[in-house]
Amino acid sequence: MRDPSQIKILIGCETSGMVRRAFLDRGFDAWSCDLLPSDDASNRHIVADVRDLLNDGWNMLALMHPPCTRLCNSGVRWLTEPPSRLTDVYPLADRISYQSMSRDERLEFMWKSLAEGAALFSSCWNAPIEHIAVENPVMHRHAKMLISNYQPPAQTVQPWWFGARAFKATSFFLRDLPPVIPTNKLVPPNPGTEEHKEWSKIHRASRTPDRWKIRSETFPEIAAAVASQWGDFLLQHRS
Fold first, then answer.
1. pLDDT reported for residue 50
2. What is the mean pLDDT of residues 13-33?
3. How far apart are CA 157 and CA 13, in angstroms?
């Protein structure tokens, strides 16, 4: 079995460090990167566009939180009727200029944003890296058509499959990696109950400046599962 410290793993689009730390705890040479600094001030975080790092000899890429506002099903409605304002996931300059745009200009902005998100996904999905995992919410058909070499996700998981009391359907697009096996499936509460509302806190998050971060952060239970299962796969299948 190979020494995990000899396997280089890049966790793209991650500021929390959750997945990076999970792989580091298992001895892998793991790094995270994002356009923003890491929340934990780690020296294993690179402030950069992930696309600038794809040719640096990684054994595995895990793109955990790519900007998905325009790719996911929940945002498809804005491609026919643009929102009145942009969320805090967009830079302040974009939010300000958007307010003075006409309806047609806003629609053009939405489609341009979709194309940019699909381009990022395509670059990472087609990167010269042997093992790739891309996390993304369920996509709409327009996004699928724009992604180069698009393939359906290998699986869609829920946090409660791994012991986290929460709802958040997340798809994993996998290349030469196995689907993640649930580790601790809970019984979801009945709709309409207070417990169900608590499990729905991701979708019910208040519109604060950090809402995008709350909705995108990986649950520690999922981070532990992917680091354990994909880590074991890498050790067993790499010479």
1. 95
2. 96
3. 19
pLDDT, residue 204, reads: 60
Number of domains the chain contains:
1
Q: How many CB atoms lie within 10 A of CB 222?
A: 26
191-199: list long-range contacts, CB under 8 Å, 24+ apart. Answer: 198/165, 199/160, 199/165, 199/166, 199/167
What is the C-alpha separation between 87 and 213, in angstroms, rounded? 12
* 43: containing domain: 4-237
**pLDDT at site 90:** 81
Residues 6+ apart with CB under 8 A from 21: 40, 223
3-state secondary structure of 61: strand
CATH number, domain with residue 92: 3.40.50
| Residue burial 141-167, b: 16+ Cβ < 10 Å; e: rest | eebeebbeeeeebeeebbbbbbbbebb
